[in-house]
Specification:
The chain is mainly alpha-helical. The chain has one domain. It has helices spanning about 15-30, 35-50, 60, 65-80, 85-90, 95-110, 110-135, 155-175, 185-200, 205-220, 230-240, 245-250, 260-275, 285-295, 310-320, 320-345, 350-370, 380-395, and strands at about 5, 55. It has a two-stranded parallel ribbon. Helix 1 packs across helix 6 (about 95-110). Residues about 5-10 and about 400-413 have low confidence and may be disordered.
Length: about 425
């Protein structure tokens, strides 16, 4: 693919086509609630990429820690489709390659702090509006465990997965932006409240657990004394929260809960699938079709859409190498974000909220993936892919930022 190569003196300015490409790319993320609209915008981004991408010499080398496992992951996806029990069905899973193209597009279209911050603000604003839509659905009879709010998404777990990512980005922005947000802080605090209320109202326990884990890490890094507030806040929540919400929280550790037991049965079946075909798995889109063969006789459900675990789903569907490639991608991004955060002075750094927010949001996404196949949910996968590439987009703002990757003495102190 031919791309526009810009000079390395830091004086490059985006052309109209480059700005249009950036807006198209941003639009496909902001429109994930409508997968058709998101697909159209991503397709237009791909078509205009030869005229809109901006790369300097060395940019792709800078991204090597992410691109190498991405290449392996993509090749293994193709290999697992052809090695499938039913290749014709599994070939449909190759459409994921279209979504994965965002990893290659983002650094050439969303470069540096200003563009990354603009897109993050757009995502959090969109999440607040969608959360408000979800809460408004109470007026139409939604809100209990049998009719959970889902906003404009097709499923409440998809809704909670998108809100979770945006919630962490916004939370760190408010608590960690060293330069403040001036008069704009008001809408962000309001957005934070709306998003978290909607996240609670989805009754999605995996997202709750992920939010607590990521929030705890944030407090350990930024304000460890606030961890002492967990106990009184927990008591207050139990006393004031609606009974169905408290009951749902208590059920998280209840192994007799039908949903929890069903997940244990899926875990057993998934492990058997991996043991039988560890190299290429059953094939994309084959876990759902073949689950009845591996299902435990005591499992509550005869049919499932997936194994409700991103990591197990990857291994069972595409083999252990695909899972390792995904873990390598996540590690490369988390490492880049942590090193960027440390190198720029920790919490005092000018982009601390972006590095730390991306790190915690990606961490939460993976923790939630222990309970739901959110990597296989396109509407959630697309913002997660932006998280994977976000630290590399930040590194491409000015010349010399490639030095963020090698070890430096100050990083070891």
């Amino acid at each position: 693919m031919a791309v526009s190569e810009v000079p390395s003196d830091g004086r490059d300015r985006p052309t109209r086509l480059q700005r249009a490409g950036s807006w198209l790319f941003s639009g496909h993320l902001l429109a994930v609630f409508s997968i058709a609209a998101s697909n159209i915008l991503l397709g237009l981004t791909v078509l205009t990429a030869p005229f809109s991408l901006r790369f300097r010499r060395g940019d792709l080398a800078l991204m090597a820690p992410l691109l190498a496992p991405l290449g392996i992951y993509s090749l293994w996806l193709v290999g697992s489709a052809f090695a499938s029990f039913d290749p014709r069905t599994s070939l449909g899973g190759l459409r994921e390659l279209f979504t994965l193209s965002a990893v290659l597009l983002a650094p050439g279209l969303v470069r540096g702090e200003a563009q990354v911050r603009r897109l993050v603000d757009g995502l959090t604003a969109a999440a607040a509006l969608l959360a408000a839509m979800g809460l408004a659905s109470y007026l139409w009879g939604y809100g209990d465990i049998d009719r959970r709010i889902r906003g404009p998404f097709s499923h409440y777990m998809t809704f909670s997965g998108f809100l979770l990512i945006c919630d962490l980005l916004l939370m760190v922005r408010l608590l960690g932006d060293p330069r403040g947000s001036g008069g704009r802080r008001g809408w962000r605090w309001a957005a934070l409240v709306v998003i978290n209320v909607a996240l609670l109202a989805t009754y999605t326990r995996g997202a709750w657990v992920a939010l607590v884990v990521a929030g705890t890490v944030l407090l350990v890094i930024r304000a460890p004394k606030l961890l002492l507030a967990y106990l009184p806040l927990g008591v207050l929540l139990v006393v004031l929260a609606p009974v169905p919400l408290v009951s749902r929280m208590i059920s998280i550790t209840d192994l007799q809960d039908p949903s929890n037991y069903d997940r244990l049965c899926m875990l057993e079946a998934g492990m058997t699938m991996v043991a039988e075909r560890p190299l290429f798995g059953l094939g994309p889109e084959m876990v759902e079709r073949r689950y009845p063969i591996y299902r435990s006789p005591s499992a509550p459900r005869f049919e499932i859409p997936h194994l409700h675990n991103s990591f197990l789903q990857l291994a069972a569907e595409r083999g252990i190498p695909a899972l390792l490639a995904y873990l390598a991608m996540s590690w490369a991004s988390l490492r880049a974000m942590y090193r960027g955060y440390r190198r720029e002075g920790g919490s005092r750094g000018p982009r601390a909220d972006l590095f730390l927010g991306g790190l915690l949001a990606l961490l939460a996404f993976n923790v939630a993936g222990l309970f739901e196949n959110n990597w296989g949910d396109t509407e959630v996968q697309r913002p997660a892919l932006f998280l994977l590439v976000m630290p590399f987009c930040l590194m491409m703002e000015t010349p010399g930022e490639a030095d963020m990757l090698p070890d430096r003495p100050e990083e070891r102190t």
